[in-house]
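Progress report, Aim 2. The chain analyzed during this reporting quarter is listed below.
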Amino acid sequence: MTEHEPTGSREPGSAAEGGRVLAVCVSPGGIPKKPVERAEAREDGLVGDGHDHEKHRSNARAILIQDDELLEELRSEGYDVGWGAMGENLTVRGLRVQELSPGTRLRFSGGLEVELTEPRRPCFVLDAIDPNLKSDVIGRAGFMARVLRPAAIRPGEGIDVLSVPGGR
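Predicted C-alpha cells for the chain:
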C-alpha cells in the first residue's frame, strides 16, 4: 500500500471547502470511542473523553478529526471500522482533512473553532482492530486539532474552512 501524504493545497473558498460532522465520539479512554448526541468541546478536548496516553495529554492534540471517506476505504480493504473505531472524536464527510495543512482553522456551525496542529501518527492502539491497520493508515489517519473557541458540537453541523496557512 502506498503512503498518502497531506498536500496542504486547499484554499479557503475553494469548491472543495467545508463538510459536515457525521459523528461526535468519546470514550473514558482508549478505543473504540462511541458516538454521542452532543459533546462540549473545551481547550483540553471533549468533555467525557479520556486521553489514555501521556503523548495525548496536550491541548495541541485535544480533538482528532477523521474523514468518513477513509473509513469507507478501509472497509473496502477488509477492515471492520465504524464511527469512533479508530479513536477519532469527529467523523466528518466532505472535508478531506488529509488535504489540509497544520495551522488551518475550521469553524463548525454550532460555534466551535479549531486549528489543525498535526497529522495523526497511528499508534499501537489500532492493533486491537487489526495488526496491519497502523501501517496501512500512515499519512491518512486524520488530523489532531486544538480548540480555539470552545462550544458544544453535534452530528449534522456544517464545517467551514476559515483559513489555510499561506493562504488568504
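Confidence is low (pLDDT under 50) at residues 1-16. The radius of gyration is 15 Å. These observations will guide the mutagenesis work planned for the next reporting period.
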